[in-house]
Amino acid sequence: MSKIIGYEWRLREQLAAAGMFSTTKLIPLLEERGVHLSPSQVYRLVAERPERLNLHVLMALTDILGCSADDLIVKVDLGRAQKDKASGEAGSSDSASAVIRSRALRPRPARVTE
């Protein structure tokens, strides 16, 4: 059996704790630290759970908020995947999918912007 892990993105909570309730207030603070993102990119960063995150952005956020990466990203244990005895591979995608669906974890469609 293999362990299935996920994560929670807690940027919105950290911003609220710092008294920032508008994503536009984050833009100049990021730019001061050399991170240049459009308003829509900053909004998505706050409102959605990122699948990939640049480490410069992560470090800028921790500096702005005075927190650690552990405060922004929290590991979530999604359970264990069953091994298929016949093939020796991880269990069917149905068992992993069932865990993901039961916890309402859904992938977000990618959006390409230029």
How do the strands and helices of this protein lay out in sequence?
Elements: E1 2-9, H1 11-17, H2 26-32, H3 39-47, H4 55-65, H5 69-72, E2 73-81, H6 93-102
Antiparallel strand pairs: 1-2
Describe the structure.
Residues 103-114 have a biased composition (Basic residues). Residues 10-74 form the HTH cro/C1-type domain. This protein has helices spanning 11-17, 26-32, 39-47, 55-65, 69-72, 93-102; strands spanning 2-9, 73-81. By secondary structure, the protein is an alpha+beta fold. The chain has a domain at 2-78: 434 Repressor (Amino-terminal Domain) (Orthogonal Bundle), CATH 1.10.260. The longest helix is centred in the middle third of the chain and has 11 residues, at 55-65. The protein is globular and about 50 Å long.
Summarize the structure.
Residues 88-98 have a biased composition (Low complexity). Residues 10-74 form the HTH cro/C1-type domain. This protein has 114 residues and is α+β, with helices and mostly antiparallel strands.
List keywords for this structure.
single chain, 114 residues, two-stranded antiparallel sheet, globular
Overall SS class: alpha+beta
What pattern of helices and strands is seen along the backbone?
A: EHHHHHEH
The CATH class of the domain at 2-78, by name, is Mainly Alpha
* Rg value: 18 Å
Strand order of the largest sheet: 1-2
Shape: globular
Please give the alpha-carbon distance between the first and last residues. Answer: 42 Å
Task: Please tell me the CATH architecture of the domain at 2-78 by its name.
Answer: Orthogonal Bundle
CATH fold group of the domain at 2-78: 434 Repressor (Amino-terminal Domain)
Q: For the report, how would you describe the main beta sheet?
A: 2 strands, antiparallel
Please give the count of helices. 6
Mean of residue pLDDT values: 83
Domain HTH cro/C1-type: 10-74
Organism: Arthrobacter flavus
Biased composition (Basic residues): 103-114
InterPro entries: Cro/C1-type_HTH
